[in-house]
Write a structure and sequence with these properties.
Organism: Bradyrhizobium diazoefficiens
Strand order of the largest sheet: 1-2
EC number: 3.4.21.89
Largest sheet: 2 strands, antiparallel
Number of strands: 2
Enzyme class: hydrolase
Family: Belongs to the peptidase S26 family.
Number of helices: 0
Pfam families: Peptidase_S26
Helix content: under 10%
Strand content: 5-15%
Order of helices and strands: EE
Shape: flat
Length: about 80
Amino acid sequence: MTYDCVDNGYLDNTSVYTVPPGHFFALGDNRDNSTDSRMMSAMGFVPMDHLVGKVTRIFWSLDADGRLRGERMGKVW
Protein backbone atom coordinates (compact mmCIF):
# COMPACT_ATOMS: atom_id res chain seq x y z
CA MET A 1 0.00 0.00 0.00
CA THR A 2 1.27 3.47 -0.77
CA TYR A 3 -0.13 6.90 -0.11
CA ASP A 4 0.94 10.51 -0.36
CA CYS A 5 1.35 12.49 2.82
CA VAL A 6 2.82 15.76 4.01
CA ASP A 7 6.23 15.58 5.69
CA ASN A 8 5.28 16.30 9.28
CA GLY A 9 8.66 16.03 10.94
CA TYR A 10 11.51 13.76 11.86
CA LEU A 11 9.50 10.73 13.03
CA ASP A 12 7.86 10.44 9.59
CA ASN A 13 11.24 9.77 8.02
CA THR A 14 12.62 6.74 9.80
CA SER A 15 14.77 3.91 8.60
CA VAL A 16 13.51 0.39 7.91
CA TYR A 17 13.13 -1.65 11.09
CA THR A 18 13.59 -5.39 11.46
CA VAL A 19 11.46 -6.58 14.35
CA PRO A 20 13.02 -9.49 16.22
CA PRO A 21 11.02 -12.71 16.65
CA GLY A 22 8.72 -12.65 19.67
CA HIS A 23 8.32 -8.85 19.61
CA PHE A 24 5.87 -6.22 18.37
CA PHE A 25 6.49 -2.82 16.84
CA ALA A 26 4.12 -0.35 18.52
CA LEU A 27 3.07 2.88 16.81
CA GLY A 28 1.31 5.77 18.51
CA ASP A 29 -1.65 7.50 16.89
CA ASN A 30 0.04 10.92 16.97
CA ARG A 31 2.85 10.24 14.52
CA ASP A 32 5.22 13.07 15.44
CA ASN A 33 4.48 13.22 19.16
CA SER A 34 4.23 9.57 20.20
CA THR A 35 6.80 7.78 22.28
CA ASP A 36 6.63 4.44 20.51
CA SER A 37 8.85 1.74 19.01
CA ARG A 38 10.53 4.25 16.69
CA MET A 39 12.22 5.77 19.74
CA MET A 40 14.58 2.94 20.64
CA SER A 41 16.04 4.69 23.70
CA ALA A 42 12.57 5.20 25.20
CA MET A 43 10.59 2.11 24.20
CA GLY A 44 11.93 0.07 21.31
CA PHE A 45 10.48 -3.30 20.36
CA VAL A 46 7.88 -4.72 22.75
CA PRO A 47 8.24 -8.35 23.87
CA MET A 48 5.03 -10.34 23.29
CA ASP A 49 4.83 -11.27 26.97
CA HIS A 50 4.52 -7.55 27.85
CA LEU A 51 1.18 -7.24 26.03
CA VAL A 52 -1.72 -7.50 28.45
CA GLY A 53 -4.78 -6.51 26.43
CA LYS A 54 -6.35 -5.30 23.22
CA VAL A 55 -7.88 -1.90 22.54
CA THR A 56 -11.56 -2.30 21.75
CA ARG A 57 -12.96 1.23 22.02
CA ILE A 58 -12.02 4.89 21.98
CA PHE A 59 -12.51 6.66 25.30
CA TRP A 60 -11.26 10.19 24.58
CA SER A 61 -10.37 11.71 21.23
CA LEU A 62 -9.26 15.25 20.36
CA ASP A 63 -8.79 16.88 16.97
CA ALA A 64 -5.70 18.87 15.92
CA ASP A 65 -7.08 21.99 17.64
CA GLY A 66 -7.68 20.16 20.93
CA ARG A 67 -11.46 19.98 20.55
CA LEU A 68 -13.35 16.87 21.61
CA ARG A 69 -14.26 14.56 18.72
CA GLY A 70 -17.61 13.37 20.04
CA GLU A 71 -18.34 11.20 17.00
CA ARG A 72 -15.43 8.93 17.99
CA MET A 73 -16.12 8.58 21.72
CA GLY A 74 -17.16 5.06 22.61
CA LYS A 75 -16.47 3.72 19.11
CA VAL A 76 -16.18 -0.07 19.28
CA TRP A 77 -14.20 -2.36 16.98
